[in-house]
Amino acid sequence: MSYNTILTEVEGKVAIITLNRPQVLNALNDELMNELSSALSGFDTDENIGCIIITGSEKAFAAGADIAAMAKYGFDDVYRRDFISRNWEGIRKVRKPVIAAVSGYALGGGCELAMMCDTIMAADNAKFAQPEIKLGIIPGAGGTQRLPRAISKAKAMDLALTGRMIDAVEAERAGLVARIFPHAELMTEVKAIAKTIADMPLLTAMMVKEAINTAYETTLSEGMHLERRLFHACFATNDQKEGMAAFVEKRSAKFTNS
Ligand code: HXC
């Protein structure tokens, strides 16, 4: 499949999607978000893929939603077509693990896109912000909801009310970012992490993702209930039998994703 605004490649069981509008620092317009949704759903249903990476360029993961496009919109345009719901919400439906590999700017919708992924790995030159307030809008792709869950209410208010940028170290300290790498090594390191995940039993990885994401969307008791049921379901898989047998027999497990 060929796209205009993203590049896709596959290395073993890892799919890599690179946002590719370099002239506008990967500003996220409708075409890019449609192509990203389409590529993600293709990899999600491809049984040879176990983990997906979304990345950008060295200078920008994504500098936000496309301001030039949004500048022309009125209330009627955005409300009538439910601007952003249609082509952004698809990302949340992906059931395999998705890693954001962030180098450079992840601003506004770029930061929100990274937060829609299951984890964020950052280069040491990464910069995160929710600067929408300076444009007279609020974050509209989950920033006001995911940021306080990721980094605390105090810090989310600080970022969204001032629009200030934080660097990778502050983002990691706040809990937004899982790990930081020198920018020249980011993709090598993230591909290695993605391979580690892709080599895990796939059904179990999907259950981990479903259970942890549910922690964001429900009560503790509902989340505990789902975790218990998924935990029980693991015992119906061949990979649970294989993983435990391999440990007992002191050999490497050969998972079959079944
Ligand atoms: C459209 C953008 C853009 C964006 C950069 N560009 N960000 N175009 N939408 N979000 C374009 C610039 O207009 C410029 O085009 C080119 O990319 C290079 O950018 P420069 O500003 O010249 O680069 P630099 O001086 O290095 O500054 C980098 C920057 C700055 C700090 C990232 O570009 C910036 O502040 N961008 C806007 C960041 C922002 O406000 N993001 C939030 C958007 S609102 P030309 O043609 O001049 O070369 C949002 C809402 C989400 O995301 C809501 C739900 C989807």
From TrEMBL:
GO terms for molecular function: enoyl-CoA hydratase activity. Keywords: Fatty acid metabolism, Lipid metabolism, Lyase. It catalyses: a (3S)-3-hydroxyacyl-CoA = a (2E)-enoyl-CoA + H2O; a 4-saturated-(3S)-3-hydroxyacyl-CoA = a (3E)-enoyl-CoA + H2O. Its EC number is 4.2.1.17. It comes from the Bacteria. The keyword Lyase applies. It is an enzyme of class 4 (lyase). Gene3D superfamilies: 2-enoyl-CoA Hydratase, Chain A, domain 1, Lyase 2-enoyl-coa Hydratase, Chain A, domain 2. GO terms for biological process: fatty acid beta-oxidation. Could possibly oxidize fatty acids using specific components. Belongs to the enoyl-CoA hydratase/isomerase family. This is enoyl-CoA hydratase. It comes from Polynucleobacter antarcticus.
